[in-house]
């Protein structure tokens, strides 16, 4: 999966709730019904990029099973980016669908 | 923007802490994945193996995070330097040999580049250097491809090659300069009176000879006033005295240092030329009567020709003219 698309999926996942890395990976896998399986080597660098760009924030806190985990949450800038990216993706995917159906 | 800079600064300052946190985070991710597989009924070791297969290498992910962090290269250089220092202390002889080899290699490359730069890459510091050509005499019947120009030939070339803006003669030779009890061999150049105007440069000090002075000194076309060559080893120490040439025996020449050059050097423009009066004793060498007599100048000296060819704009290849 392209890095930009993974970042879009992460932003969308975090738009619903703040999650730790494992939770994000699980949610993406579940929502895609197993189509997307995110590896450590792609998920965490993507989170690092989003955090650096100010689109998400992170903080260490205790998880549900009382483990210390790093939770990520989307920032207002991240929401704006998500809205723009969603719109762009819909436009592109609709165009691709039209082309595929036509052929 | 400020926040972004702050994050980068934080990455730079707290690289080790961030690295530890990344390790903890990745370990937790893997543990949670394993726990879920165990809950699903898998054996603990099998669950770990499967989780590793699905999620990829933990260490690889850590390395990617480290590389993407600001100041990664700085940290890498610091660690490499520390490692190099440890190795230097551990094996000093090997390290010294390496340093020496690298030093010699760098020195040789630098010297070679300096020569190539000076001789090939950098244009001569003269107006329109591309129009300058070296011309030389040839006598193929006796197998001489290049030789100095006889005085008569130089005069004929000037008359019969009107497409050149001008043709000047120059002749370089070593001379012994004696001041008091000190003697020194300096490289000097004899040039025709139009040498400096042809190059389009002025003398660095004083002035060059006027045509009247040249004529008054019984000048013949190839026997020209002397000016010191700043490329000689005496450069910068003292200017070489000179005088218009006449037919008196010349001071001892040093053929090894005085080979006619095939192309002008940029130092020629810096010749320190001061006119001196006709008949003023020539102070270089032992003076008249000492040393070997010079070649008969009425028949010519092995000077080299230097011409401005207005049709040329590239390169400085030598041009061969057949003597008339």
Strand-and-helix sequence of chain B, N→C? HHHHHHEEHEEHHEEE
What value does the Rg of chain A take, in angstroms? 15 Å
Structural class label of chain A = alpha+beta
Order of SSEs of chain A, N→C? HEHHEEH
Query: Describe the biggest sheet of chain B?
Result: 7 strands, mixed
Fill in the CATH topology of chain A: Arc Repressor Mutant, subunit A
**How many domains, in number, for the residues of chain A?**
1
Strand content of chain B: 5-15%
Give the number of DSSP strands of chain A: 3
Question: Cα distance, first to last residue of chain A?
Answer: 25 Å
- Low-pLDDT windows of residues of chain B: 221-302, 314-324
Provide the CATH superfamily of chain A: Winged helix-like DNA-binding domain superfamily/Winged helix DNA-binding domain
CATH architecture of chain A: Orthogonal Bundle
Mean pLDDT of chain B: 70
Question: Could you please describe the fold and organization of this structure?
Answer:
The complex is a heterodimer of chains A (about 100) and B (about 325). With about 100 residues, chain A is an alpha+beta fold. Chain A has a single domain, classed as Orthogonal Bundle (Arc Repressor Mutant, subunit A). Chain A contains four helices and three strands; from the N terminus they run H-E-H-H-E-E-H. A three-stranded antiparallel sheet of chain A has the order 1-3-2. The model of chain A has no long low-confidence stretch (mean pLDDT about 90). Chain B has about 325 residues and is an alpha+beta fold. Helix content of chain B is about 40%, strand content about 15%. Chain B is built from nine helices and seven strands, in the order ααααααββαββααβββ. Chain B has helices spanning about 1-15, 15-40, 45-55, 60-70, 70-90, 90-120, 150-160, 195-200, 210-215, and strands spanning about 130-140, 145, 165-180, 180-190, 225-230, 305-310, 320. In chain B, strands 1, 2, 3, 4, 5, 6 and 7 form a seven-stranded mixed sheet that branches. In chain B, a hairpin with a 2-residue loop joins strand 3 (about 165-180) and strand 4 (about 180-190). Chain B is elongated, with a radius of gyration of 36 Å. Chain B starts with a helix and ends with a strand. The interface between A and B is medium-sized, with 22 and 25 residues.
């Amino acid at each position: 999966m392209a890095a930009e698309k993974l970042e879009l999926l992460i932003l969308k996942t975090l738009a619903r709730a703040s999650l730790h890395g494992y939770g994000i990976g699980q949610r993406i896998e579940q929502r895609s019904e197993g189509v997307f399986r995110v590896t450590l080597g792609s998920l965490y660098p993507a989170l690092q990029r989003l955090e650096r760009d100010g689109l998400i924030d992170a903080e260490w806190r205790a998880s549900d099973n009382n483990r210390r985990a790093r939770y990520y949450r989307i920032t207002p800038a991240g929401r704006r980016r998500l809205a723009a990216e969603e719109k762009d993706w819909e436009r592109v995917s609709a165009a691709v669908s039209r082309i595929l159906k036509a052929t | 923007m400020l926040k972004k800079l702050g994050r980068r600064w934080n990455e730079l300052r707290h690289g080790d802490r961030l690295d530890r946190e990344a390790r903890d985070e990745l370990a937790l991710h893997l543990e949670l994945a394993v726990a879920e597989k165990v809950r699903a009924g898998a054996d603990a070791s099998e669950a770990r193996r499967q989780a590793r297969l699905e999620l990829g290498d933990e260490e690889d992910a850590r390395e990617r995070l480290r590389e993407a962090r600001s100041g990664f290269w700085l940290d890498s250089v610091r660690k490499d330097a520390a490692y190099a220092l440890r190795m230097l202390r551990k094996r000093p002889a090997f390290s010294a040999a390496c340093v020496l080899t690298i030093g010699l290699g760098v020195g040789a490359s630098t010297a070679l580049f300096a020569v190539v730069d000076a001789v090939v890459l950098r244009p001569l510091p003269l107006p329109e250097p591309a129009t300058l050509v070296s011309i030389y005499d040839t006598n193929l019947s006796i197998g001489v491809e290049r030789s100095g120009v006889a005085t008569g030939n130089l005069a004929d070339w000037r008359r019969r090659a009107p497409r050149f803006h001008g043709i000047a003669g120059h002749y370089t030779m070593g001379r012994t300069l004696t001041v008091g009890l000190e003697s020194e061999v300096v490289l000097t150049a004899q040039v025709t009176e139009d040498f400096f105007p042809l190059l389009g440069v002025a003398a660095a000090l004083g002035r060059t000879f006027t045509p009247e002075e040249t004529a008054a000194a019984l000048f013949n076309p190839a026997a020209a006033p002397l000016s010191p060559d700043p490329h000689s080893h005496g450069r910068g120490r003292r200017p070489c005295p000179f005088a218009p040439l006449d037919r008196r025996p010349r001071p001892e020449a040093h053929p090894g240092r005085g080979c006619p050059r095939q192309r002008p050097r940029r130092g020629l423009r810096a010749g320190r030329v001061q006119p001196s009066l006709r008949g003023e004793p020539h102070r270089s060498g032992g003076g008249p009567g000492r040393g070997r007599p010079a070649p008969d100048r009425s028949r010519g000296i092995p000077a080299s020709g230097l011409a401005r060819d207005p049709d040329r704009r590239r390169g400085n290849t030598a041009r061969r003219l057949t003597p008339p």
